[in-house]
Amino acid sequence: MKSDSIGILKAGLSTGQKLLGLEEAPETILNSPFYDAIIQYGFRPSIFDITKNDSNSRFSNLFYRKPNRSQKLKKYLDLYKTALEMNSQTDLSIYLGGDHSVSASTIFAQLERFPELRVVWVDAHPDINTKETSPSQNLHGMVVSELMGLSSSSIFFKYFESSMKLDSSHIVYIGLRDIDPGELMYLEKLGIRYYTSNDVFRNGMDSIIRDAILYLDHEQSKPLHLSFDLDSVDPSIASATGIPVHGGLRLEDVKRLGDAIGGSGRMVSMDLVELNPSLASDQNELKKSIHVFTTLLKSILSAYRFSKIQSPFLRSTWRSQGVSDVLRIRD
Ligand SMILES: [Mn+2]
Known about the structure:
With 331 residues, the protein is an alpha/beta fold. The chain is built from 13 helices and eight strands. It has a single domain, classed as Arginase, Chain A.
């Protein structure tokens, strides 16, 4: 059955920031219980890779060390095109970063397929700086402004020849706690809905995500994309990431998030980004960090499967098994 197929795209680009190591993340994730979970839950994974066409591996190594601007852009275009191809073949797309700049490619690609796409961006940072406001000038901190075309010098929209930008009312943030002044200016000017990690602690993830999904899509009919940055969670459970910020989400929050989005019946894709295996102090820390992605995946897949089941009997069974209340808002 086609609904059992999951596309996984290895998107280990690290050029949106200055550290090396993120290129190894997709392979590391796929060699962990993350991959086993897909099989255990009865889904059929197809793996896609943007580097497969590099005939000369020495070149691809060189690329990661010192790419020039057009080599960089070419990689994002390759990723965009591979995402378009993969999305047309599978129901649920998973993009394994890489730093968060890969979401320019993955979300622009999904917007071509679903112009009505809604985005839930789970992150410690809003990633909405522009060239004009960014203190670091790192692309992974400007990816949302790129998706919205906020900067006069925005890059990807033109380069990909995209037809759709992301509307500022079609995204919500969850988990924010490290916001630059320029970013706050954009959030307020555009009236973008966001929930800090403290909002999550005060009100509970179930109520936050219910509110977020209703805000994004009052009719509960639009396709949903989850962009999940590992630094959204607390560094005590995920240390292998480039810009950790204390006071982050807990594993329980991640589970509830996955439950709600996977169980919405409208999830089409997600990014899992900013795992940097080289920043883990030891194997155990690396395992803990990957476990966050695996926990999210498992809650998504079990809820996703149940959301496809229409039988009233099975639905009541599923309810009695304790899938979160949030799913009931669909009725
Ligand atoms: Mn991010």
